């Protein structure tokens, strides 16, 4: 796609299903007003509003899944007005959004799945000239197993109550985060919407180089193009609102008062240094470096989200894998 058309592109047949994750201008007053109207129509207006952001973290997503499962068991898990997910967090997010009725599916997805259910290794010759070192066909099959017509109907129902399920990918050419409104897609009635949601979830979890980018067909200036989308964690390890979108300022414009908000963040990883001996080999050095980069990026995202929450008067609650935890082989 030519650079001048990047900001004009749209997925054919859909309206208002995505915005740039680094620019709050995409959250137009019309979208916010629609949410408020849905909440009023469904009687889903409360003085308390809870947000949940689920981070990336690969297999550490089992931590976030376990937190949600235990949260339900405690009897204190709230309903979330907005749920966001990135990478492995994007795979957790639909279950978190739909609540306790989907806990068993969530537990199954993170306790009954192995690497063979996620990827297939390519041969050395197949990697040459390829877009990735692994085939993500197993991941696609896994996602399609859970993202069913019933799940779409349930997401649509909750979307129409004024709740939002948002998933982040990265537009590789544009080098920008893209936030997809999964509920708006589910509610669109457009043929192929189930496949599009599956593509978005797979894209959000597609680590660049390991998995191939997911191509999403768009139109711009009367022409058709393929956008390449990869792991949302390439842009952000976790997100809620762009920094230039102020919830407090939006309340002022909408003349809303007295709403108590809490932002919960599930960080699927540790935030403390972890010592491990690195072999003087390419794979070990690159692997450890990327792991360190992801961790520090995740810590930076926590600080950013905390600062934005403080600015807008939103209570902030975050949890991560404790420093004392040690992985053991089964």
Average residue pLDDT: 89
> What is the beta-strand fraction?
15-25%
Q: How many DSSP-defined strands?
A: 11
SSE pattern? EHEHEHHEHEHHEEHHEEHEHE
Large-scale geometry: globular
- Report, as a whole number of angstroms, the end-to-end distance: 47 Å
What's the helix count? 11
Structural class: alpha/beta
* Helical fraction: 25-40%
Rg over CA atoms: 20 Å
Q: Main sheet? A: 9 strands, mixed
- Runs in which pLDDT lies below 50 for 5 or more consecutive residues are none
How would you explain this protein's 3D organization?
The chain is an alpha/beta fold and 330 residues long. The protein is 39% helix and 19% strand. It has eleven helices and eleven strands. The chain has helices at residues 29-42, 61-74, 88-98, 103-111, 124-127, 137-146, 149-159, 182-186, 193-204, 247-254, 282-311; strands at 18-20, 48-54, 82-86, 120-121, 134-135, 164-171, 176-181, 214-220, 223-231, 260-267, 315-320. Strands 1, 2, 3, 6, 7, 8, 9, 10 and 11 form a nine-stranded mixed beta sheet that branches. A two-stranded antiparallel sheet has the order 4-5. A hairpin with a 4-residue loop joins strand 6 (164-171) and strand 7 (176-181). Helix 2 runs antiparallel to helix 4. It is globular.
